[in-house]
Amino acid sequence: MSNSPESALGTILTAVVTPFSPDGEVDHDAMATILEHLIANGSDGVVVAGTTGEAPTLTDDEQIDLISFVSDSFGDRLTVIAGAGANDTAHAVRLTERATNAGAKAILSVTPYYNRPNEAGIHAHFAAVAKSTDLPVVLYNVPTRTGVDMSDDLAAEIGVRNSNVTGMKQARPGTPSAIEGLDLYAGNDDSFAAAMDNGAVGGILVASHLVGTQMLAVAHSNDRDTLDRPLRSFYDSLGVTTNPIPIKAALDLAGLPGGHLRLPLVSASAAERETIADAMRALDLLA
């Protein structure tokens, strides 16, 4: 029996990789294989073309084509959340409009990165994004990548003033706290269990590519710490270098088509792969 709050989008939402073929093209067949695996292993939904999906190196057309493909082929079995963020508000609005038309069921929108807007700018940015769609919008706070840390109070205010801003993916280091008026999603695997204890409705996760069933059990357990503890070495191994390099190596080690990466990301080194393999071996995840 679940003791966790319910989310309309789902509990285990995997930030899915974008597989690339050896010649650098988006590999829809490999994506379909991964999605079938996720459906069979605990995922309620996926974020397509987010950070883990290497959105910074996707063209807009590739990004929308991928969202459309996943929505058309899997939208009846998974909640499809479209990564549609940008640090140019006009660009984020265009992506959000196109992702909405491509069949996504929700939008994940990251705080503008690099240009580091102040609170008024962040608020105005998300108001413009929210106005451009009738879909639920999940805010995404990941200060280690963006250089901007959106306060919980600001996120709550954005939610109050924009009725379709319904959630927050919190990837700030440490344990996330509930935000009044917004569904909270853990954005880091290692904080997922504690976030659920703090009122989160689920997580937007990376380790769930391979331990989604176990993470779903954590979410619905009355003793989350006990179930989560054996997974922590695997979580740690996925931080051995920059995401999504480790999870693509892990998928390869598990016999799944994670695919190549696009520069400036490069494949895991031999030492990094061995660290990942050791953690996977302990959980019987190797092919």
What does this protein structure show overall?
The chain has 287 residues and is α/β, with parallel strands linked by helices. The protein has one domain: Aldolase class I (TIM Barrel). It is 41% helix and 13% strand. The chain has helices at residues 28-40, 60-74, 89-101, 119-131, 143-146, 152-161, 192-197, 208-219, 224-228, 232-237, 245-253, 270-282; strands spanning 12-15, 45-48, 79-83, 106-110, 137-141, 165-170, 183-186, 202-205. It has an 8-stranded parallel barrel with strand order 1-2-3-4-5-6-7-8, surrounded by 6 helices. α3 (89-101) links the parallel β3 and β4 (106-110). The protein is globular. The model has no long low-confidence stretch (mean pLDDT 96). This is 4-hydroxy-tetrahydrodipicolinate synthase. It comes from freshwater metagenome. One of its GO terms (biological process) is diaminopimelate biosynthetic process. Catalyzes the condensation of (S)-aspartate-beta-semialdehyde [(S)-ASA] and pyruvate to 4-hydroxy-tetrahydrodipicolinate (HTPA).
